[in-house]
Amino acid sequence: MTEAALLDSECFQTTDGEIAIVNLNSARLRSWGRFYQDPQRPGAAETVLEHEQLTAQFAGDLSAIGRMEAFGEQLGRLDAASARTMVIKAQIASALHRFSDARHYLAQASLGGAPPEDIKRVLLNVDQACGSHLEEVLDERRRIVAKSGRFEDRVALGALLADVGEFNDADETYRRALREYRDVSPFPVAWVCFQLGMLWGELVPEPELARAEHWYRKAIVSLPCYVRARVHLAEICSATGRASEAAATLRPALASGDPEVLWRLADVLHSEGSVGEAASHLEAARARFEALLDKHLLAFADHGAEFYIGSGGDPSRALELAQINLRNRPTLRAFEQTYTIALEAGEADAANEISAKAVKRWGNTSAYQLSSFVQGPLEAAEGSAA
Question: What's the number of CA atoms in the CB half-sphere (13 Å) around residue 23?
Answer without folding.
Answer: 10
